[in-house]
């Protein structure tokens, strides 16, 4: 499976997800996040979701190329891809 730069978490944690994973607290978090636009609340809820994920471990990744970023050798700035977005911090890159 190839992840997009901004994956839809409902695919992995929502109703009818690809692994049939079910957790009532995660279902509640997903419902709450779906109906809010407050970034602080979303961050708080996703942090809680991640804490639950670390305990339940419903998915195990076999490979992740988070450190693979092709770029021009003249590019300057801190290039620090993370587990879900290879262009993290792109606003600080320059040539």
Short description:
This protein has helices at 10-13, 24-34, 39-56. The chain has 95 residues and is an all-alpha fold.
Give an account of the 3D structure.
With 95 residues, the chain is mainly α. The chain is built from 3 helices and no strands. The protein has helices spanning 10-13, 24-34, 39-56. The longest helix has 18 residues, at 39-56. The protein is elongated and about 50 Å long. The relative contact order is 0.14. The mean pLDDT is 80.
Whole-number average pLDDT? 80
The dominant shape is elongated
What is the makeup of the main sheet?
Answer: none
Sequence of secondary-structure elements: HHH
Low-confidence sequence ranges: none
| Tally of DSSP helical segments | 3
What fraction, in percent, of the residue positions are helical? 25-40%
Task: Work out the radius of gyration.
Answer: 16 Å
Intertermini distance = 33 Å
Please identify the structural class as seen in this structure: mainly alpha
Strand content: under 5%
What is the strand tally?
0
Secondary structure elements and pairings:
Layout: H1 10-13, H2 24-34, H3 39-56
Helix pairs in contact: 2-3
Which labels suit this protein?
0% strand; 95 residues; single chain; mainly alpha
């Amino acid at each position: 499976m190839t992840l997009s730069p901004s994956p839809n978490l409902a695919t992995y944690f929502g109703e009818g997800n690809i692994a049939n994973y079910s957790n009532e607290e995660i279902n509640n978090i997903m419902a709450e996040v779906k109906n809010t636009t407050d970034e602080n609340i979303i961050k708080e809820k996703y942090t809680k979701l991640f804490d639950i994920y670390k305990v339940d471990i419903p998915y195990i990744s076999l490979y992740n190329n988070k450190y693979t970023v092709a770029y021009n050798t003249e590019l300057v700035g801190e290039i620090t891809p993370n587990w879900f977005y290879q262009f993290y911090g792109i606003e600080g890159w320059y040539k």
